[in-house]
C-alpha cells in the first residue's frame, strides 16, 4: 500500500511557475513508476508526465514538453513537478500516481488544484 499526498497547487498568472510535490509513504518507493495526471474542468483525466523507478527516464505529454520538468528523490520518497511558462489551459486538478510495473497496482493522491489566470 502506498499513500500519496500532493502539495504546491495554487493560483498563478499566465507565464508564471509552480512546483508541485508528491510525498509517498512506504519503504518501496523506488519500485514504483511515478507520474502526474490532471483533470481540467469538465474534461477527462489526462496524462501529464511520468518517471521510472530509478529516475533515469521521464515522459511528458506533448502539451507540457519543454515547460514542465519531473524529478524524484528516492531517499526522501518525493516527486516534484516544476511547471514553468504556465498557460490558462494548464488549469486543472493535478493528481499524483504511483504505478507498480509488475503487480500493476495503482495508487492516487487526493489531488491539488492549479489555476492559471490569463
Walk me through this protein's architecture.
By secondary structure, the protein is mainly β. Helices cover 0% and strands 51% of the residues. The protein contains no helices and 11 strands. The strands form 2 sheets. Strands 2, 4, 5, 6, 9, 10 and 11 form a 7-stranded mixed beta sheet that branches. The chain has a 4-stranded antiparallel beta sheet with strand order 1-3-8-7, with no helix packed on it. The model has no long low-confidence stretch (mean pLDDT 96).
List the helices and strands and how they pair.
Blueprint: E1 4-7, E2 10-13, E3 18-24, E4 33-39, E5 46-51, E6 58-60, E7 68-73, E8 78-83, E9 92-99, E10 106-108, E11 112-117
Parallel strand pairs: 2-11
Antiparallel strand pairs: 1-3, 3-8, 4-5, 4-9, 5-6, 7-8, 9-10, 9-11
Instruction: Name the helicity range.
Output: under 10%
Total helical elements? 0
Indicate the multimeric state. Answer: single chain
Arithmetic mean of pLDDT: 96
Sheet with the most strands, sense and barrel status: 7 strands, mixed
Counting DSSP E segments of at least 2 residues, the number of strands comes to: 11
SSE order, one letter for each helix or strand: EEEEEEEEEEE
Distance between the termini: 40 Å
Proportion of residues in β-strands: over 45%
State the shape: globular
* Rg, alpha carbons: 13 Å
Give the structural class.
mainly beta
Low-confidence stretches: none
Amino acid at each position: 500500500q502506498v499513500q500519496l499526498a500532493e502539495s504546491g497547487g495554487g493560483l498563478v498568472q499566465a507565464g508564471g511557475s509552480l512546483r508541485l510535490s508528491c510525498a509517498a509513504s512506504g519503504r518501496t518507493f523506488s519500485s514504483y513508476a511515478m507520474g502526474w495526471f490532471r483533470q481540467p474542468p469538465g474534461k477527462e483525466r489526462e496524462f501529464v508526465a511520468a518517471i521510472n523507478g530509478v529516475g533515469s527516464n521521464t515522459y511528458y505529454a506533448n502539451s507540457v514538453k519543454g515547460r514542465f520538468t519531473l524529478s524524484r528523490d528516492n531517499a526522501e520518497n518525493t516527486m516534484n513537478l516544476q511547471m514553468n511558462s504556465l498557460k490558462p489551459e494548464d488549469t486543472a486538478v493535478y493528481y499524483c500516481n504511483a504505478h507498480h510495473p509488475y503487480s500493476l497496482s495503482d495508487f492516487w493522491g487526493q489531488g491539488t488544484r492549479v489555476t492559471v489566470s490569463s
